[in-house]
Amino acid sequence: MIRSLTPSLRRAPDRVPAPVMLLIGMFTLHTGSALAVTAFAHAGPATVTWLRLTWAALLLLLLGGPSLWRAVRAASRRELGAVVILGTASAGMMLFYSEATARIELGTATSIEFLGTLVVAVAAMRRRRELVWILAAVVGVVCLTRPWLGELDLVGVGFALAGAVCVVAYIVLTQKVGAGFSPVHGLALTMTVGALVSAPLGAPAVFAAPDPDLILFTLGIALLFPMVPFLLEMMALQRMSRTAYSTFSSMEPGASLIMGLVVIGQSPALVQVAGMALVVVAGVGATRGDSARPVVRGEPDAVGAGAGGTGSARPGAAVPDHQERGGAGGRAGEPDASRAPEPVSAP
Question: 343 has which bridge partners?
Fold first, then answer.
């Protein structure tokens, strides 16, 4: 039954607008992140993150089915090595993000981690005037953290910045994994590696004092991220241009702030709302600037999901460029179903 799910995604009803599916996935993702914060009262961030990664890996391995193992056997050592490195970067991204959100507001942590995506975006455009978007985002982060109040949690900010560094590695490596594996296979393998890498930090507490309620709760969080957002994204990406997708993805910090308010009652001050608006504008501005560049095959997109991955990044996710050129194996304007589309930058 699970293995039959992926083909059905290709037959998603056209009456559901792709941006709506993407927005639902985005808010679902950050609902999961907000709920994870509530679990920190019962277990450490590393433990909760490991359980999330483990559940996600198990679910995605089931979703991948026998075709996943065939893909692994057919992969080269270089492709498998890229998966291991990407899985490690993804685990670091989620662990650092969780440690950050245990100390600072959800929207603030997401915005700081989003700086990694913006750095790659501006670097890819190679135009000095585009540095204005990084400057705008930095000003936005300053407004979000409000250091002038003397209450800045430097450890939390440090964890979020470490997550931003992992985002940069994630963006670069997603291209390599996306070139060798389908989105579902790439995500399943990446989450499996992430669960194994984070096990020494999170597993001991679970085995020392098992908490069935916590284990089941993290299963629900794993469904909220990455399962549901990723599956919705797979459907949306079939009918969205690269620029449209990246523009909507730039709104993730704002979605994070909203869900932090709704789910865990993190009420932002007016200056923080203004700071979040600057971060979102910076992401959209970098995206629109990148849309003016010629598309070069094999070159990673400047701005993409995640978040994430931002603790919200979806490893293996890809943006089709079928609106610029027809798929190699299908009608003009349709993606080629025989291979994974071009990967994008980033949970």
Answer: 318
Of 7, 94, 39, the residue nearest 314 (C-alpha): 94
Collapse the DSSP code of 343 into the 3-class scheme (helix H, G, I; strand E, B; otherwise coil) and give the result: strand
Residue with tokens 């003009």: 332
- Inter-residue contact 244 to 326 (CB < 8 Å): no
Cα separation, 219 vs 216, whole angstroms: 5
Distance CA 272, CA 143 (A): 5
Per-residue pLDDT of the chain (347 residues; tens, 9 = 90+): 445 555 554 454 467 788 888 899 899 999 999 999 999 999 999 999 999 999 999 999 998 999 999 999 999 998 999 899 999 999 999 999 999 999 999 999 999 999 988 888 777 776 777 788 888 999 999 999 999 888 889 999 999 999 999 988 888 887 677 778 888 898 899 999 999 999 999 999 999 999 999 999 999 999 888 778 877 877 777 777 766 777 787 888 999 999 999 999 999 999 999 999 999 999 888 877 655 554 443 444 433 433 334 444 444 444 434 333 333 333 333 333 333 333 333 44
Cα angle: 256, vertex 259, 261; to 5 degrees? 110
Cis peptide before 226 (omega within 30 of 0): yes
320 and 312 Cβ atoms separated by less than 8 Å: no
Tell which residue, 170, 169, 142, has the closest CA to residue 157: 142
Name the pTM for this structure. Answer: 0.79
333's tokens = 């304007």
CA dihedral 225, 317, 118, 33 (to 10 degrees): 0
